[in-house]
Amino acid sequence: MMNEESDFERICLLCAEPRVPSGLTQRGRFFCQTCQREWILEKRKIPRVGKNVLNSEEKTEFLLENLSLFNSSLGLEDLMFRFSELIADRLKKDKIAIFITNLELGEIKLAHYYSKQKYLQRAIKRFTLDYDLSYGILVEAMANREPCFYKFSDQTHPFYSFYSKLTGTKSQLVLPILYANIAVGMITIDYDEEDPTEYIEDEEILKIIVGQFAVSLRNSLLFSKSKNQSKHFRSLHTAALTLSQLYLNNHNEMIRMILLTLSGIVDSSISCLIEFPIDSAKVKVFKVYRDLDNYELKTHTESIESKELNSILQTKEIMTIDPIKIPILETLGIVGKESMIVPVKLENGTICIFILAKQDSRFPNEEIEALNAFVSLARITMENSNLYQNLSNKERLEKEIEIAKEIQSNLLPRNTPEAEGFSFGGFMVPARGIGGDYYDFILSPNRNELFVCIGDVSGKGVAAGLVMATVRTILHSLVRVKDSPWEILNDINNYLYSSYKEAITPRFMSMILIRWNLVTDEVDVSGAGHGNFYHYHVNQKSLQSIETGGVILGISPDISKFKNESKLQFHAGDTILLFTDGVTEALNASEKQYGEPSLEKSFLSNIELEPKKILENIYLDLKEFVKEQEQHDDITMVAVRKI
Predict the structure, then answer these.
(1) Do 470 and 240 contact (CB within 8 A), yes or no?
(2) Structural domain that includes position 583
(3) Is residue 507 domain-shared with residue 627, that is, in the same domain?
(4) Rg of the chain over CA atoms, in angstroms?
(5) The domain that contains 337 carries what CATH number?
(6) How far apart are CA 127 and CA 162, in angstroms?
(7) What's the farthest any 2 CA atoms get from each other in the chain?
(8) What is the percent of the chain where pLDDT is above 70?
(9) Is 408 left (phi over 0), alpha (psi -120 to 50) or beta?
(10) Do 304 and 418 fall into the same domain?
(11) Same structural domain for residues 86 and 167?
(12) 489 and 591 share a domain?
């Protein structure tokens, strides 16, 4: 027997190389000197490592053979189908699932299930798990970012019993899909037995290509998200044009149009508006139901005693909530996984409460951004409708401008961002109540990046203000998914050109966009025909005028040849000043412009003050120059200092 065993070779199941182990450890595991891992070594007379295990050369060949699968231009559905088909063919497995993680919404969603048993694919469809450790091993594997093999019989959460009965699965291999060490999803392989002998080989094969799949999956997810944002932008633009022209003399139809548009923007199964006039004991409830699977649409309107809805009518701020926590929502027929409540108070005292509900998911940030922008537009329309009914033409126009001015002021930063090491100032005085100028400070959710921008829309009044409001919504969405200021400017150009190229009055916009990386202190600058800004260097006590270049947005469908990207060295104590041409081109009674020399002088004379005070003093100098002369353009300035 001993002689017979001496003819056997020990084979490492990972690297497939015959090696004498360097030492025996617990439960028959050895340290392989070839792959430098502790693993099971098997005795084989003929080197049979397993049907799937590859040596180093074969691993490389396998990856190269399948690189075409990871083409970043693949759509999400196509990518997942082809990847699961590749795994099924290579591992000879029949039941493979791909889950996608959305940490923003706190959920793990089954995005694709592959099986040759078509009834299984139809039965499983798509379901979602909360990102909650109470779910057990699946969520733990994601949180720990480590592969694992487990038996369903060891899990206590009801989900595993349901899944096992539905698919016949007894055990499962879980492999997180990691991008930059963050779990963007996971792959699972189902086994009909609890025997763990095969999963080691399956895991090794998956590890070869899952990293490249993670990159492609993230690219596809970003592309899908960008398409959704583009849809929101188009819906917002179309709705703004429609609501500004129609329904002013048909109140009920106007409300239904608003609710229908809202449900499309945020993919809501139900949208509701509770309207409570100040002198009424009853509220009017408008509802629009959308069947997202069968493309059916139903509307319903009813009157209810206001005291029954008192808890909702007291809502003062936008909120998201589980509908179960507010019993009256179920009475209204509003059910689902998450509801959003948006209160609006009109000028005449009417309280309007918008309520939207999602059946199986939560509201992502980009939808909330689009929702806020549209509700602002809807408020303008409702106010205009009231004015249309009650005021003379002149009074209605004046009131419309006043309402739009108030809403626009709410779109500008109310407070400076809490970015450690920076001090900010922002200032805007519109020429006609409603301005086309725009400035903003945007701090990323992870507080690692700060965007500062200033822009000027062509024209004045309501039309320019509407463009400004829409561009703001686009910008706030894009900074979440785009790293380069130039990429953001390019997308804004695409929106302006496609939306206004056939308009009677085209709309253009100049802009400067600056991105601070608060971790590395890198500063990137891109311009779009806005001209220059000033940089005061505290060490040299000198003022530098920086020309940004670029081309005005909305003129051409392709601005790639005007691409400009520059770096800014910004040291402690330095201050930058951005401004629109309403500052330098302000005229006095002699038709003389205030000009850049006067602006530079005022800036330097106030440089020791805080940024906010600097802007106030510059404006006082400007007003002293123009005296009682009428203001012809919006006056906007931004100052930022690194402390």
Answers:
(1) yes
(2) 412-642
(3) yes
(4) 31
(5) 3.30.450.80
(6) 12
(7) 114
(8) 75
(9) alpha
(10) no
(11) yes
(12) yes
To 10 degrees, what angle do helices 56-65 and 199-245 make? Answer: 20
Annotate 163-176 with DSSP letters as a single string: HHHHH---EEEEEE
Establish if 59 belongs to a structural domain: no
Residues 257 and 378 in one domain: yes
What number of residues does the chain have? 643
User: Cα–Cα distance between 122 and 129 in angstroms, integer?
Assistant: 19
* Domain CATH number, residue 166: 3.30.450.40
pLDDT at 542: 95
CA distance 233 to 440: 19
Is the Cβ–Cβ distance between 497 and 462 less than 8 Å?
no
Residue 202 sits in the same domain as residue 111: yes
Distance CA 611, CA 603 (A): 10
Give CA separation, 515 vs 376, 443, 585, in Å.
Answer: 28, 10, 28
Burial class (CB in 10 A: 0-12, 13-18, 19+), 527: buried
Burial of 470 (0-12, 13-18, 19+ CB in 10 A): buried
> Which is nearest to 251 in space by CA: 105, 378, 410, 371?
378
396 in any annotated domain: no
434 shares a domain with 367: no
Q: Sheet of 182-191: strands edge to edge?
A: 128-130, 107-114, 96-102, 182-191, 171-179, 148-151
- For helices 461-478 and 393-411, the axis angle rounded to 10 degrees is 20
Are 183 and 267 in the same domain?
A: no
Number of domains into which the chain is organized: 4
Place of tokens 């490389």: 60
Whether 168 maps to a domain, the answer reads yes
Which pLDDT belongs to residue 105? 64
**In the numeric block, which tokens belong to residue 341?**
């409540």
Lowest mean pLDDT among 73-82, 535-544, 593-602, 629-638: 73-82
For tokens 């209204």, the residue is 332
* CA angle centred on 224, ends 219 and 227, rounded to 5°: 125
User: For residue range 500-514, what is the model confidence (pLDDT) as tens digits?
Assistant: 887 767 788 999 999
Whichever domain contains 484, its CATH number is: 3.60.40.10
Does residue 188 belong to any structural domain of this protein? yes
Q: DSSP string spanning 89-102? A: HHHT-S-EEEEEEE
User: Is the Cβ–Cβ distance between 438 and 457 less than 8 Å?
Assistant: yes
Please write the tens of the pLDDT for every residue from 46-80.
333 344 455 556 555 655 555 555 554 557 777 88
- The H or E element that residue 286 is part of is strand 282-291
Task: Note the pLDDT of residue 17.
Answer: 54
Per-chain mean pLDDT for the chain = 79
